[in-house]
Amino acid sequence: MLHHATLTEHAPTGGSLIESQIQRHREYQCASIAIPFTKAANPDKRHEVEDGAARIPFAHRIPDVIRNHFVAMCAEYVGTVLFLYFALGGTQVANNIPTSSGESVKQVGSNPEQLQYIALCFGFSLAVNAWVFFRISGGLFNPAVTFGMCLIGALPWVRGVLLFVVQILGGMTAAALVSCMFPGQLDVQTTLGGGTTVVQGLFIEMILTAELVFTIFMLAAEKHRGTFIAPVGIGLALFVAELVGVYFTGGSLNPARSFGPAVVNHNFHGYHWIYWVGPLLGAIVASGFYKFIKILEYETVNPDQDTDKSKDERPQTSQSFEGRHSYEDFAHNETKSVPENDAHGALQPPSSTQIGTATGNGHAGDGVRKLNKAPVTRLERTCCTHIHASA
């Protein structure tokens, strides 16, 4: 992978911005394949983590794959327990705290203040714990989210199955802790309310979960300059979904959230299945739409979102790309595509000839494409047009 500094240093006049944009797009495109689920995402830096006292005794004898799965499972279990402990604990408080009349909410019925309190507990708890565990296991805490991440290829299926299991266990553990630590009967089960039918509840759970899962795809699975605050947006997405769903379905969006309290209370409603099928269908819907916009290369619609340059600073073209040459014609004139290695096997920085004149017409975009050995994208075609116009 070429570095941004290398591209801008050797790029021809007028092309540095476009080339850096292509490179940033490449980095995000590669990073969006999977969240770094190992303790050292960069293999070149693994020794910095594993040397010396970084490992526990005898850990070096455990294969990396098994160790990484184990670490991810531990983190996901603890994270799910913490997330649901505070969320379910807040729900227990909201359902049992006396109102101004001295009666509990359960006796007088739901009210907007109670629903907002529950929604805040879920949204804030997810935002905090997802931020904490994001770099270890991904901070999923939800079997439906895990299923969706596997569908888009951001999570291996083996890891997904393992996380699925520990998330269910985490939901049961959190419900048991709330039941033991809080006085009174555990009153956090998801039930249909407000005259909601089973079919309506199924589709409500599906749509709300699809919104949450798609938010996770775009903020966490897709890498961009705002990824570091993705947990905030994800927590807000759950908060908004809970505001809508708590009154009608209990706002599950998470099979582990509904299954845990049902196990602790030994009470499964006849429609409990909607809290499994609905969220999983929502994950499928979100995954389908995500793949649809990826096929259409949505990155080309607003290509400058991750740059510091305004539209006025970008090179403009007065002619359409079709009126010049086809992008493939540029590739046929390529003279040298891949930089050679030195005597020690290290990759040498590309020269201005390799980048700026990788084709006979001197179009930098083709050099970047050939050096990265990646297929042509619409973003690169657009960038090459800008470079050709500004040259």
TrEMBL record:
Belongs to the MIP/aquaporin (TC 1.A.8) family. GO terms for molecular function: water channel activity. Residues 349-360 have a biased composition (Polar residues). InterPro entries: Aquaporin-like, Aquaporin_transptr, MIP. Its main location: membrane. Residues 303-372 are annotated as: Disordered. This is Aquaporin-2-like, partial. NCBIfam families: MIP. Keywords: Glycoprotein, Membrane, Repeat, Transmembrane, Transmembrane helix, Transport. It holds the Pfam family MIP. It catalyses: H2O(in) = H2O(out).
